[in-house]
Amino acid sequence: MERYVITGGPCSGKTTTCKELASLGYEIVQESARIIIAEEQQKTNGVLPWTNLFEFQKLVLRRQLDLESRINGQPTFLDRGFLDGVAYCWQGKVKVPEELLALTKTQRYNRVFLLDPLPNYQTDGQRKEDITVAAELHRLIGEAYKEFGYDVIKVPVLEPKQRAQNIIKKFSEVV
To answer: What are the residues facing 89 on neighbouring strands?
Structure first.
């Protein structure tokens, strides 16, 4: 199972880049955190990152593992990987869930692509971090993957099609 992570801080173009990769025929796994936030916002007392980061990260991890278990064998790009949760815990100064740390010993991604942040940062109903926190998260995400032994491939700000082509070129060099 070949899994390639597309990551970066909030508003770095991950989802847009993944959509471009999907339009070129690649399999994509959606961002678990955004799915969970949308579901939890529908509940009266939903578990959200800004109300209970620790429990939220556990929900995200479970969903991430479920989505990744459905990968059918062809190379797949993930809109974030489970190690992003480590960076969010570090930034929020909460304990990293034990199940997430245990996973670092048994699960490996093939490659990690870190997208540089876009210059026009925007918040939305699910992305509430201000630009300072977003920049810190971006830095911490890169550090988390490096700490767990990944060579992080940086992807500069480009038009979405060019970013996807840049990733495909680098992906093709390692396959």
So the answer is: none
Residue 19 CA to residue 161 CA, distance in Å, equals 10
Indicate the number of domains in the chain.
1
Strand residue runs (E) in the chain: 3-7, 27-29, 76-79, 111-115, 152-155
DSSP structure class, residue 97: P
Please report, for residues 50, 109, 122, 134, 159, the alpha-carbon distance to residue 127 in angstroms, rounded to integers and kept in the order given. 10, 25, 8, 9, 22
Residue type, 46: G
Q: Which helix (H) or strand (E) holds 110?
A: none
Question: Which of helix, strand or coil describes residue 129?
Answer: coil
- Rg of the Cα atoms in the chain: 15
| CATH number of the domain where residue 76 is located | 3.40.50.300
How many Å apart are CA 82 and CA 96, to the nearest integer? 11
pTM for this predicted structure: 0.91
What pLDDT is attached to residue 124? 56
Residue 18 to residue 114: CA distance in whole angstroms: 13
Domain that holds residue 111: 3-174
